[in-house]
Each structure stands twice: as structure tokens, then as C-alpha cells.
Specification:
Elements: H1 26-50, H2 53-63, H3 110-129, H4 139-142, E1 145-149, E2 153-159, H5 176-189, E3 196-201, H6 214-231, E4 239-244, E5 262-268
Parallel strand pairs: 3-4
Antiparallel strand pairs: 1-2, 2-5, 3-5
Length: 272
């Protein structure tokens, strides 16, 4: 018998761990991140397509405010006594939280003038929409009108309805409905001396058409509206601009919807 016959047996166990390559779970996390990023990308593309240029500008302005933030002190009795550490010389203490303002400067009543003008534009808007109890538009044509007071002025939007277009389809030939609308707007705009802008918009045309006439049609319809306005004894020198936007600024998601066929007549604020 060998000398080591009674020696204890030693059993070595080896534990195999498989964690690399495709057998692990790290790739699942990376794939989930990729799918999430693609979903966010396609959602962004959909939102860009579903909004108008004006809506996108409004969203951009919300995240990028135009109100300047000043780095000077707002005044106070703290360590610097109202001075700013960002300037080399002592600044006057205003106590208002803004840039020191020369008290001798005056806006010449510009704020009062702007408020008065806004009130006047709203008064004209009320006349069009019967908010004051009496409308210059009959019920039949009032359904073609949307108005709003903007930073640019009083915008009067005239648009097609399924059973009542403003122009003969595909042409710049106005209908009797548009003639009545233009005559009514001319009477309202004649109450003030502001300049006027005319903008034409049309619905998108099918991609299969031989020649896309959206630009020519929108510009031609805006020009026709100008002629009709001048033909109603409206002063030609008050018309500031005539613009065609083709199908670039739809107001509804379906770019081919008839609702996108419209004219915008803007009674501009003073100085615009």
C-alpha cells in the first residue's frame, strides 16, 4: 500500500460566469436608449409638421424670452450700497431693479398712444363681429370672418367654406360673397387712416398636378383683393404691401383642406 493512500481527496470546483457579449444584459439598456431616442425624434418631426410657422415662433419665443436681463444692481443697502460688481465706476442707485434711467427722459406719451390705438382697433373689431350689439356683417358672411388684434394690427381673416368659396375654384375670379366682404371691410377700414397689408394663402395642391400654381394663385388672389378694395373707393396709397404665401402657412393640420384658402387683411398699427 502506498504511503499516501489515506490522504484526503481534494475536489476543486470551477464556477463559470458568462456575462460578456450577447449573453449579458448591457445591450438591452443600450437598445432601450436607442429606441427612446428614435421615438423622441419622430415625435419632434411630427410636431414640426403639425404646427404652423407662427405657432413654432410662439413656442420659440416662450423658451427664448426677449425681455433683457440686466447685470446691474437693483439698488439696496447691502455690501455694495446699490453698486454693481460688474462695472468699474459707481452706478446710480435706482432701487427699481432695472438699468438706471434718466428721470429727464420721457417717452412722449408713446405708451398712451399705443393703448389708445389698441382700443380703437378693438372697437373696429367689435363693429365687425357685433360684440357691441350691432354688426356691419350679415349672418351669412360673418361666418367667413375671424378677427384678432395682434402686435402688427387688426387682422381680418376671410376664408373659404365648403359650400361658399371666396374665389372660383383654381382661379383668381372672386365670387359675389367676396365682393360683399371686401365692401364691408372697406367701410370699416375707412373709419381710420392706418395703412393696410393684404396677404393671400391657398391650400396645398396634389403632388400629381403637372404644374403647382400655389404661389401664383395666392399672389393673384391677394392682388385681386387689392383691386377690389381700391374699387370700393379705398385710397390706394394706404395699401402698404400685397403678399402671396402659397401653401406655406396652413391654419389646419390637413394642408389640402379648403379652410387654408384665405385672405388676410391687416389694418397696420401706426409706424408699421
Amino acid at each position: 500500500m502506498r504511503a499516501n493512500a489515506n490522504a484526503p481527496a481534494i475536489i476543486k470546483k470551477v464556477k463559470k460566469v458568462s456575462g460578456g457579449g450577447h449573453h449579458g444584459g448591457a445591450w438591452k439598456v443600450a437598445y432601450a436608449d436607442f429606441v427612446t431616442a428614435m421615438m423622441a425624434f419622430f415625435l419632434l418631426m411630427w410636431l414640426l409638421n403639425a404646427t404652423t410657422e407662427k405657432q413654432r415662433k410662439g413656442i420659440a419665443d416662450y423658451f427664448n424670452p426677449t425681455i433683457p436681463v440686466t447685470r446691474v444692481s437693483g439698488g439696496g443697502d447691502g455690501s455694495f450700497g446699490g453698486d454693481s460688481v460688474f462695472v468699474e465706476e459707481t452706478l446710480s442707485q435706482t432701487g427699481t431693479g432695472g438699468v438706471p434711467r434718466d428721470p429727464t427722459l420721457d417717452d412722449g406719451g408713446a405708451g398712451d398712444d399705443a393703448a389708445a390705438e389698441s382700443a380703437r382697433l378693438e372697437e373696429l373689431e367689435d363693429m365687425l363681429l357685433a360684440r357691441g350689439g350691432e354688426s356691419m356683417a350679415s349672418d351669412d358672411i360673418a361666418r367667413h370672418i375671424i378677427t384678432r388684434v395682434t402686435d402688427e394690427g387688426l387682422l381680418v381673416e376671410l376664408f373659404d367654406l365648403e359650400d361658399a368659396p371666396l374665389f372660383e375654384p383654381g382661379t383668381t375670379l372672386p365670387t359675389a360673397l367676396l365682393s360683399e366682404l371686401i365692401a364691408m371691410i372697406s367701410r370699416v377700414f375707412a373709419l381710420v387712416e392706418n395703412r393696410v397689408a393684404i396677404e393671400g394663402h391657398v391650400a396645398a395642391q396634389p403632388v400629381v398636378v403637372i404644374e403647382n400654381t400655389a404661389w401664383m394663385l395666392s399672389t393673384g388672389r391677394a392682388t385681386q383683393a387689392r383691386r377690389m378694395l381700391e374699387g370700393s373707393a379705398f385710397p390706394a396709397d394706404r395699401i402698404h404691401r400685397v403678399t402671396g404665401h402659397a401653401d406655406r402657412e396652413p391654419v389646419v393640420a390637413n394642408v389640402m383642406d379648403l379652410r387654408n384658402n384665405r385672405l388676410e387683411l391687416i389694418l397696420l398699427r401706426a409706424g408699421r
